[in-house]
Amino acid sequence: MQTVQLVLGLTMMLSLARAQAPIVNAGGVVNDGNYSSQGVAPGSIVAIFGTNLASKVAITDTIPISTALDTVTSVTFNGTPAGLYFVGPLHINAQLPYESLPSGSSSATVNVIVTTNTGSSTAQTVNVLPAVPGIFTANASGLGQAIATDNNTNLIAADAGSIAGLTTAPISIGSGHALIIWCTGLGDVTPSIADGANSINPDGTTTLRNTVLTPTVTVGGVAAKFVYSILAPQYVSEYQVAVVLDPSTPTGNAEPVQIAINGITTSNQVTIAVAP
Hints:
Blueprint: H1 2-18, E1 23-31, E2 45-51, E3 58-59, E4 72-77, E5 80-81, E6 84-87, E7 91-95, E8 108-116, E9 119-120, E10 124-128, E11 134-135, E12 148-150, E13 171-172, E14 178-184, E15 189-190, E16 210-211, E17 215-219, E18 222-223, E19 225-231, E20 239-244, E21 252-261, E22 265-266, E23 270-275
Parallel strand pairs: 13-23
Antiparallel strand pairs: 1-2, 2-7, 3-6, 4-5, 4-8, 6-7, 8-9, 8-10, 11-14, 12-14, 14-20, 15-16, 17-18, 17-21, 19-20, 21-22, 21-23
């Protein structure tokens, strides 16, 4: 009898565990590129951390990206459903809806709620700013080697052989090639775009979308020449900033790179390899 009771008790405990509502950590909504506490920007990829957020890992395979994935029925920001890239029990990647920051506003505070088939989380708040640049890195930590490529060779600007499984090479100052920095959090674009969509049109053509705000970039502490700042056409919420390195840029395998917007919000400081 005791054995039966024990089994029943364990079964009930497991059922209750499975039925627990999701919990979003306080301060657990951050820019997915830099994990900064500065805030998040409209249209950016955000990381949401907590517990019981989904039953298992699932990745979106549609564009526009879906607003429901696995057991997650919605992630809302002030009631607006967000597109979901990835969900897992402890982590969700979502697109912050562009309308999260009212037109003309310099900041806003929005409520974030995750809803699954077991219930809804208690609302947590996150600060929304016009732009919060976050540069993607090779180890996905927001630190170290940047995902930054030579526009001509498409190789990541890193020391040769430094990233397992990839062909890499320093970017050469003398080549005059543009450096493409892959990031998120640069805010609104023009022309505007729908939440969850990319810039590939139904007829296969591409609409080029420039960021409304113009970033500045330093490499090795030296200002680089700005070329463009756009929404990467084939992806959702990924941006490309193109610059040409100044002739006085220092060379080395770990030269610091940083993006700034209006001299107020700055990205994580990451590194690239630079050759003469």
